[in-house]
């Protein structure tokens, strides 16, 4: 009898361990499940995009995506102190979601069909466009075709500048730098005539104190970039985040965040997008 009781106890203990591991797996990786992290919520953002998502030297986080994510987290029941910020580099975003490393991602994450095969998107919450940034006193670039014979900068690996050369200004002189900060320094010094990427990203950089008043956006709208909140495929968070985004627009917090992060660059934002409507 003692042996039988011992065997039963051993089986029960093993079953409990399996159940514990299974539950943890569902909490951290199963589609539709919220990560089991106590009161904490883990959010992926960019760490290196001023005005969008930036980790400052003092360890705080600023930018439009940060403000949007903070608002969403609050609507999900989390105080700002409960947010664990995780860097979401462009190449890593789908993997972070699929592995369950983050609850959601707000990182200038444009919705497109290829990405939507791997993850779900709430939103969109911002309609951005490919644009150019030029010096505030430069009146020679008034339309996209004026970029012909101009020195056009973008970062290494970006397709933005090549898109302009292929489709709009074939005689543009492409210059690739390691980062947008380098492009802006070149623009400030007259080595570069224009910098191109999403207008929201350009506005974020131009709004930084060291560049304030030195640059302006062209307003060319050369593409549509629908920023969405990335969540795990099949996640129950998608509907909840959409509800939070609608409330953010309705109570004025969305426009306040746009003005705060992009306003100093003279960014003329599109109206808040309608949830589920992706502009082609």
TrEMBL record:
Keyword flag Transmembrane helix: no
SUPFAM superfamilies assigned to the protein according to its UniProt record, in alphabetical order: Periplasmic binding protein-like II
The Solute-binding protein family 3/N-terminal domain, residue ranges: 40-265
InterPro entries attached to this UniProt entry: Bact_solute-bind_prot3 (IPR051455), SBP_3_CS (IPR018313), Solute-binding_3/MltF_N (IPR001638)
Any one of the GO BP annotations: amino acid transport
Signal peptide stretch: 1-29
Tagged with keyword Disulfide bond: no
Keywords carried by this UniProt record: Signal, Transport
PANTHER family attached to this UniProt entry: ABC TRANSPORTER GLUTAMINE-BINDING PROTEIN GLNH, AMINO ACID ABC TRANSPORTER PERMEASE
Protein's name according to its UniProt entry: Glutamate ABC transporter substrate-binding protein
């Amino acid at each position: 009898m003692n042996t039988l009781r011992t065997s039963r106890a051993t089986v029960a203990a093993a079953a409990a361990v399996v159940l514990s591991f299974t539950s943890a797996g569902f909490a951290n990786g199963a589609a539709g499940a919220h990560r089991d992290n106590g009161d904490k919520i883990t959010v992926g953002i960019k760490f290196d995009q001023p005005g969008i998502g930036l980790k400052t030297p003092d360890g705080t986080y600023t930018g439009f995506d940060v403000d949007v994510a903070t608002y969403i987290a609050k609507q999900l029941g989390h105080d700002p102190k409960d947010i664990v910020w995780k860097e979401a580099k462009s190449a890593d975003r789908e993997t972070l979601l699929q592995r369950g490393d983050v609850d959601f991602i707000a990182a200038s994450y444009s919705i497109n069909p290829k990405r939507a095969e791997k993850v779900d998107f709430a939103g969109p919450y911002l309609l951005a466009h490919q644009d150019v940034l030029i010096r505030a006193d430069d009146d020679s670039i008034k339309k996209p075709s004026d970029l012909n014979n101009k020195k056009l900068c973008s970062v290494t690996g970006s397709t933005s500048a090549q898109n302009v050369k292929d489709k709009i200004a074939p005689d543009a002189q492409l210059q690739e730098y390691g980062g947008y900060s380098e492009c802006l320094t070149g623009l400030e010094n007259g080595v570069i005539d224009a910098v191109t990427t999403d207008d929201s990203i350009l506005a974020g950089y131009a709004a930084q104190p060291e560049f304030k008043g030195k640059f302006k956006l062209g307003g060319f709208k050369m593409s549509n970039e629908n920023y969405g909140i990335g969540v795990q495929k099949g996640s129950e968070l998608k509907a909840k985040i959409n509800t939070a985004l609608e409330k953010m627009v309705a109570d004025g917090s969305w426009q306040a965040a746009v003005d705060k992060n992009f306003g100093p660059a003279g960014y003329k934002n599109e109206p808040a997008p309608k949830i589920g409507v992706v502009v082609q």
